[in-house]
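hey so i finally got around to running the thing on that chain from the lab meeting. sorry it took forever, my laptop kept dying and i had to restart like 3 times. anyway pasting the input first so we r on the same page abt which one it is
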Amino acid sequence: MTTTSHALAIAARGLHKAYGEKKVLDGIDLAVPRGTVFSLLGPNGAGKTTVVKILSTLIPADGGHAQVAGHDLAADPQAVRAAIGVTGQFSAVDGLITGEENMLLMADLHHLSRREGRRTAAELLERFDLLAAAKKPAATYSGGMKRRLDIAMTLVGNPRIIFLDEPTTGLDPRSRHTMWTIVRELVTDGVTVFLTTQYLEEADQLAHRIAVLHDGQIAAEGTADELKRLVPGGHVRLRFADPAAYRAAASALRETTPDDES
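ok and heres what got predicted. didnt touch it at all, straight out
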């Protein structure tokens, strides 16, 4: 990319990571413009979570260098942490306490005053449609509600860069589309979103740019349209409002890939 470094939320060059003899990342470069959704796409085990862990200062890289929010990962990790939020594959929600208490706990960790913490918690619970369940134990929440609470907790510190590591894995189609709406709203507010996913449709719907991670390297990068043009052959997508017609078409057209969720 030709984007100048001051316009980048994340810039990495030559990142390497290995665990013993297993090479997870083999010299990857990343350039993520501010205020965009950047999707790292790949199957399970491709190394997506390792990239997130390195860029969010959770683990060190074995080689290469990176800047996040203008701060060098190795030289100033504390400044990086102050600028980012992370929602991992596994929920950080404490199921033994209420949704509101989870939010207030995050406010305490960010050293907000009691008044400011309660105001921030209430605003975010309302924004994520969790006010009605705020006084209930988080263990009683559905998967989609826990995911929304997870992201709301991430936003308590008002980060300008958010890492979402496979945020919709395991969610039903309705909850997944709700998450997509949340991501779009975050970007509208000027937040940069670094999204990892194994869902082609998710990257297509959300990302301004997509990088495909394969065997520890970036196999391809570009906009969704640019990447589609790299795939040879023609494609036809058929949509059905009537489930019966959809099933009949799936049966009649055998060389197809049905999408039952959509």
